[in-house]
Amino acid sequence: MGVESQWGGCSGRWIGVVVGVSLLVILSTATGADTEAPPQAPPLPDLSGQRIVLERPLPQRSELRYALYRLELTHPADPAPDRAAERAGLERFASIPRAGVQRPVFADERTILLVVDAGRPVNPAADMPRQRHRKPGPRVPAEDEALARSAAEALADQPDATTSSERAIVLSQTVARWWADESEEGHPALAAITPWPRPLGESAPAAWSLAAALRSQGIPARVVAGLVYAYEPAEADKNEQEHEQEQADAEPAFTFRMWVQAWVGGDEQPREGQPPPIGARWVDLDATDPADHTGRIALASGVLENQDLHPDAAALADLLDRLRIEVISPRPFPGDR
Predict the structure, then answer these.
(1) What is the pTM of this model?
(2) How far is CA 182 from the centre of its chain?
(3) Fewer beta carbons within 10 Å, N or C terminal of the chain?
């Protein structure tokens, strides 16, 4: 009896220990499930490194006023591509915007003839500003007090800038100065700009801050993703060997860039000796590359403004990987046609 009672007591204690350990394991597992880290978003594709090489150079950007390009969407490298992805790629290609100074003049499934003409802005009847072009966004903090105040002060310092076009130019120049601030803290107007992912390049935060400054002052604006001509020919004043080497290394190419389109115009008054003012339209503005040239091709507008950048970035990466550009007719001046 004594022995049986002793072992019986031990059995009860061992059962209690086993049950306790089991409960502890279950609780630990449940707690671990609750605190499990959320899945990480896929890395952004490196858009800033995208280049589309041309067979021949364009005129200097500052002189280029008209160009006709042939854009071709090549087939995917995968011999058996996903049909849904391929269809989405074709849709993205077909939606290359008609805005600013660019307009498609011919298009089929895989080819677009695109005219970029600084002398003939596009009639924007089908592309008017929407409410989202006037409001703050996740990446466009137009409501930020420091940014809006700095933008308003910049306009107050330029009382002669009375039209929307002039005000937009003042704000573009102002944002350029913000980014040129080399103090350790940087300009306070930029504090609200979300730290940008490096794969988008430095043009991304400049575009977000310019769009925010414009919207904060009542000028509709949208972010544009596209291509900018970036060819720097070799300097002729170097010795012959250095010149030949630089010329061989340099390739005429379009590179990825982000900028802004602002909705301006319609409020200018006719001026003596000047052509009649153009009506309201979208105009390209780039705070960190302000040259007024047509060496730009907009691939998509109103993109890369959401907190989650991956869907837009992935779609653009796919388009850039498969895009080929042929320069058909570049002309320095609109009259030379």
Answers:
(1) 0.80
(2) 24
(3) N
